[in-house]
Amino acid sequence: MKKISFKEILIIGLALFAMFFGAGNLIFPPSIGLIAGEKWKAALLGFSLTGIGLPILGVLAVTVSGGSIQSLLNKVGPKFATFFSTLIIILIGPLLAIPRTGATAFELGIKPLFPSVHPILGSVIFFGLTLLFTIKSSDIIDVIGKFLTPILLTMISAIIIKGILTPIGMPVNTQIAKPFSIGFENGYQTMDLLAAVVFGSIIADDIKNKGIISKKEQFKTVAQTGLIAGVGLGIVYGGLLYLGATGSSVFTQGMEKVSLTTNIINILMGSFGEIILSLCVYSACITTSIGLTATVGQFFNDLSNDKISYKTIVIISTLISIVISNIGVENIVTFADPILKIVYPIAIVLVIINVFDNLIENKKIYIGATIGTFCVSLIDGLSAMGVNTSVVGDFVQNLPLADSGLGWLFPAILGILLTHLISQLKEKAFTA
């Protein structure tokens, strides 16, 4: 039985880290730290679960389920698998993630250096480059990816170390009541769990191509690579969140995420550091945008059985992204919040169950878990939209662990138990 070398595991682990380490995600940890203040550790724990732990678990779940997004979701049903996988691709594609990369590139990469550039012009240039390199593949993207991730990581590490050695302030009591839930639910905004079901298939294929056929060895390898990626993400996100917490005595609550990040960098590293980081972030956002746009194009091309060309899809995706990116990072995050509150808990439950799929005999529990979760996540999403959910909303808010952002957990478990019980009753009735 072939085993993979440590060097190969390290390379895959670093690649997985680079996949999750999108430049757009840099803006979330500092803002969570600012909100949490002296309770930043509890907020970091919540953010680490949804922003690091669950995405790594998502890659594991894809490996266990068969190596693709369809195999992960098919246990609920083929129609659901098609619908939910399409929804995930749209969310990490032209509706949320791709426009956010463009908006982040402008606000963190262009605006600090060229404040007179209009956002529309900035988005047209950004997505024009995205379209060019997505349609005509070029080695320049590989070069950018190989060199920029280390440079960006080096810059951020320097900023974090500087912020620890000479903090801009001290974490203060911000009167926040639920730091864990703030971190937990803000972790949804990374969208890394949704991306994980796509990245998981890439990692699974890479491991299979290296000759690792044994399911046990595949799981072990993915777990090891996931640990490497998770440690890297934990150090970066933890450091950035702490920097935000030290800013709680300096900056006002409610400060926009990009402005907060820019101000922290400027105080710690000066204008030169801000320039270098802006260039790195812009280039990293471009590579992320290209990768996601290509994923969208390939997915819908396959879904349509080549009836809609790859080129047509990426053009449409790019045009939609240009429009949405111009509402700005803060508005995209606000727009995304209720959608992610509906979708993310379902993804969490399906990923966790899939990891333990080998121990599950009754596959119908996937349906019960999905329905139970959706009943609560839908109410949470509607409430986040400002919809008056009345008595139902009050009931959901009083569910166990609702204060921690986990109100959907017990309904998911109840859905599993009821589905299993109904299945057993039907089986007994049939054999009677």
Automatic annotation (TrEMBL):
Keywords: Amino-acid transport, Cell membrane, Membrane, Transmembrane, Transmembrane helix, Transport. The chain crosses the membrane at residues 9-28, 40-64, 76-97, 117-135, 147-168, 188-204, 225-245, 275-296, 308-327, 339-356, 365-385, 405-423. The keyword Magnesium does not apply. It comes from the Bacteria. One of its GO terms (cellular component) is plasma membrane. GO terms for molecular function: L-isoleucine transmembrane transporter activity; L-leucine transmembrane transporter activity; L-valine transmembrane transporter activity. InterPro entries: Brnchd-chn_aa_trnsp_Livcs (IPR004685). It is a multi-pass membrane protein. Its main location: membrane. GO terms for biological process: isoleucine transport; L-leucine transport. It holds the Pfam family Branch_AA_trans. It is found in: Cell membrane. PANTHER family: BRANCHED-CHAIN AMINO ACID PERMEASE BRNQ, BRANCHED-CHAIN AMINO ACID TRANSPORT SYSTEM 2 CARRIER PROTEIN. Component of the transport system for branched-chain amino acids. Belongs to the branched chain amino acid transporter family. This is Branched-chain amino acid transport system carrier protein. It comes from Keratinibaculum paraultunense.
